[in-house]
Amino acid sequence: MDLSPEPVMALFAELFAESERTILVRGEREPVYLPRGGDRASAQVVFAHGFVSSALHEVAHWCVAGSARRELTDYGYWYKPDGRTAEEQRAFEQVEVKPQALEWIFSRAAGIAFNFSADNLGDGGAVTSDAWALFQKNVWVQVRRYLAQGLPERAARFAAALAERFETGLSWRDAASYAEPQ
Question: Which is nearest to 151 in space by CA: 131, 171, 165?
Answer without folding.
Answer: 171
